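Supplementary notes (optional reading)

For those who missed the lab, this is the record we used. Protein: MutL C-terminal dimerisation domain-containing protein. Length: 256 residues.
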Amino acid sequence: RFRQEREVYTLVKRAVENITKPRISFSLPEAPAEESPAEDLPLKPPSPVLKVAEPPPSYALSPFPGMLKPEAEVLGPFGAEFYLLKDGDRLVFFDFHAAQERLIFEELKETLAQDGGLKKQVFLTPEPLKLTGQALTTLEENLSLLENLGFELEALAPGEFFLRAAPAILGFPAAETLKSILEEIPAPEASHFLDEMLARLACKAAKRAGELLSNAEILHLYSKVKEKRLERCPHGRPISWSISLEEVRKKLGRTL
């Protein structure tokens, strides 16, 4: 019991009434937002135009600035290795692989002389390379030259390497290609090693026998080697052989 029961009773009663009394809340409706004039509305940026990148042209096959319209005419492929062309009064048997190989060889030499090295591609995942015998000796004796050509090697153990970069022209798999090149080179002298490597890089990059080229590509190659007076591939094989109409007439007994 409380000494002042009446006062306590009154306070408790008021507290209970305050808790249980229903409460009414009022919310005023929001005023409608004023519409902005059309000219004030932000303009929607135009959708970006996506451009599909065209694949780069094949090395030494793309038309070059200022190329004269060739006088020759492509008659078609002749076997897997050649194309037959008509150039004036001559029929030309054209070895397109030898032609492109020589053009690439000359371009690589020019790039090396001007820039001191070739453009290289760095691999996200290094390629393993294992060498033995003369191939390993050739690599070890010419590491600095190989670095100038774009090869980046990390030694792991005797005869075992990671190939971390290679000349951009080489493609994939670069380690297997480098191994085959080093095995092909017959213990060259240091003075000849650079030309041997460039010749084999050009050979690996050039179109192979059996691959079909467009008439425009054949005419471009033919015009380039004719313009530069190139007669043989880096390995010494002739790029073309031709026979004149007069020679054909003599051969067939049709002299005028």
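If you only remember one thing from this example: The chain has a mean pLDDT of 79.
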